[in-house]
TrEMBL record, chain A:
<dbReference type="InterPro" id="IPR000524">
    <property type="entry name" value="Tscrpt_reg_HTH_GntR"/>
</dbReference>
<dbReference type="Pfam" id="PF00392">
    <property type="entry name" value="GntR"/>
</dbReference>
<dbReference type="GO" id="GO:0003700">
    <property type="term" value="F:DNA-binding transcription factor activity"/>
</dbReference>
<keyword id="KW-0804">Transcription</keyword>
<dbReference type="InterPro" id="IPR036388">
    <property type="entry name" value="WH-like_DNA-bd_sf"/>
</dbReference>
<protein>
    <submittedName>
        <fullName>DNA-binding transcriptional regulator YhcF (GntR family)</fullName>
    </submittedName>
</protein>
<keyword id="KW-0238">DNA-binding</keyword>
<feature type="domain" description="HTH gntR-type">
    <location>
        <begin position="5"/>
        <end position="73"/>
    </location>
</feature>
<dbReference type="GO" id="GO:0003677">
    <property type="term" value="F:DNA binding"/>
</dbReference>
TrEMBL record, chain B:
<dbReference type="GO" id="GO:0005524">
    <property type="term" value="F:ATP binding"/>
</dbReference>
<dbReference type="InterPro" id="IPR027417">
    <property type="entry name" value="P-loop_NTPase"/>
</dbReference>
<keyword id="KW-0067">ATP-binding</keyword>
<dbReference type="GO" id="GO:0016887">
    <property type="term" value="F:ATP hydrolysis activity"/>
</dbReference>
<keyword id="KW-0547">Nucleotide-binding</keyword>
<dbReference type="Pfam" id="PF00005">
    <property type="entry name" value="ABC_tran"/>
</dbReference>
<feature type="compositionally biased region" description="Polar residues">
    <location>
        <begin position="290"/>
        <end position="300"/>
    </location>
</feature>
<dbReference type="InterPro" id="IPR003593">
    <property type="entry name" value="AAA+_ATPase"/>
</dbReference>
<feature type="domain" description="ABC transporter">
    <location>
        <begin position="4"/>
        <end position="229"/>
    </location>
</feature>
Length: 119, 300
């Protein structure tokens, strides 16, 4: 895994994605630091940083002696956060590339409609 | 806590300066990467830290004591060397038994499972082992020793990609269960870059980098695009490398990348391996430059 950003952020985002797509439901046990380290072949300290970030953000919480669990309401919270960054992350680059190709927002809307019909 | 501390260490072999004012720390219970070109001084550092050689000057401490001829320290240290030699007439079983007597944390069950994992024939004599099997034996001893300070100096000779991956996985899993200080010296930087927490880069006997791997990951970027736009972007950053093809320019810059880069530029992160290569090259260039002026000085 590598897109230049700190590894622990990428780890945290992967866990978040599992919460969002439902493969990691609320109030179930999340992967442990060592499981994440072994799976992604990264240093356990890095995996621990990722977990800590999720705890600070309120996505995971610790049950003493058992492990990390997905917090109630974590999915809604994450959806809200991802929707907020959707524009910056996807719409802005989309408009930028469209502009390069001489398409304006109207052309894009038509294209999006056409593609939505197909899928 | 620091497991290893070197302060102003120099080492000379006759007229050859192997280490030139080396100061470094290895924090306890981390995986460290000791990187550098052949002949940079990595093995000299490890020999001094494991009491197989001694410094010409400076101070060396391993777990707070000088390691040279110090049984207290050395019983806690395991050093798996590049092309490690074991007595030829020993069988694999003998070598493992000898190691079990040497290391107080030796885990015989773990050793057995590793022998199985690497498919090592226990009864075969050392001299009959293939190069890869010899390396596997070294890796097994290094892991099963569970020594509080373990050095792996390029332990891979003859190990194929599958066996190396197995080594990394086993190392990570066992380190997670039994944290200890591990020093990995290797040229295969891409393979270990996500495993190591701290990087020490040695070149020509000097420390070039001594930093956390995570902070190095965001240290440099490669910018590609139309020459003028790249020049504009690069202004004010220190440049590690430059390549040009017609009107297209690619530069490697150190210093964090600005969040928003112009559309026509392609900004990529630089891998640890690339960063090490560029940093080492830059140091070599600077040495040649200063060497040239020194020569001029002596001629007068």
């Amino acid at each position: 895994m590598d897109d230049g950003r700190p590894l622990f952020l990428q780890i945290a985002e992967q866990v978040e994605s599992s919460v969002i797509d439902g493969s990691l439901p609320e109030e179930t046990r999340a992967p442990s630091t060592n499981e994440l380290a072994a799976f992604h072949r990264i240093n356990p300290a890095t995996a621990a940083n990722g977990i800590n970030k999720l705890v600070t953000d309120g996505v995971l919480y610790k049950r003493r002696g058992i492990g990390m669990f997905v917090a109630s309401g974590a999915r809604d919270q994450l959806l809200e956060r991802r929707r907020q960054t959707f524009g910056e992350k996807f719409i802005a680059p989309l408009l930028g590339e469209a502009h390069k190709l001489g398409m304006d927002a109207e052309d894009l809307k038509k294209m999006i409609d056409a593609w939505s019909d197909e899928t | 806590m620091t497991a290893v501390s070197m302060r102003g260490v120099n080492k000379k072999y006759g007229n050859v300066v192997a280490l030139d004012d080396v100061s470094l720390n290895f924090a306890e219970n981390r995986i460290h990467g000791l990187l550098g070109r052949n002949g940079a001084g990595k093995t000299t550092i490890m020999r001094i830290l494991t009491g197989q050689g001694f410094e010409s000057s400076g101070s060396v401490e391993v777990f707070g004591q000088r390691p040279y001829e110090n049984a207290d320290v050395l019983s806690h240290v395991c050093f798996v060397k590049e092309s490690q030699k074991y007595p030829e007439m020993f069988s694999v079983h003998h070598a493992l038994t000898a190691a079990s007597l040497l290391y107080e944390n030796w885990d015989p069950d773990f050793a057995d499972s590793l022998v199985e994992e690497f498919e090592l024939p226990l009864k075969r004599r050392i001299k009959k082992l293939s190069r890869g099997q010899l390396s596997a034996l070294g890796v097994i001893i290094g892991l099963a020793s569970r020594a509080p300070l373990t050095f792996f100096d390029e332990p891979y000779l003859g190990l194929d990609a599958v066996a190396r991956q197995r080594f990394y996985d086993l190392l990570l899993a066992d380190y997670a269960e039994n944290p200890r200080t591990i020093v990995l010296s290797t040229h295969l930087i891409d393979e270990v870059s996500d495993l190591i927490e701290h990087v020490t880069l040695i070149d020509a006997g000097q420390v070039l980098l001594d930093e956390d791997a995570e902070s190095l990951r965001s240290r440099a970027v490669t910018v590609t695009g139309p020459a003028r736009a790249v020049e504009e972007f690069a202004a004010g950053h220190s440049e590690l490398h430059r390549e040009q093809l017609g009107g297209f320019l690619r530069v490697t810059l150190s210093g964090a990348a600005p969040e928003h880069s112009p559309d026509d530029l392609h900004v990529e992160p630089v891998s640890l391996q690339q960063l090490v290569v560029r940093t080492t090259q830059q140091a070599a260039d600077e040495r040649t430059a200063s060497g040239a002026t020194n020569n001029k000085g002596t001629r007068r």
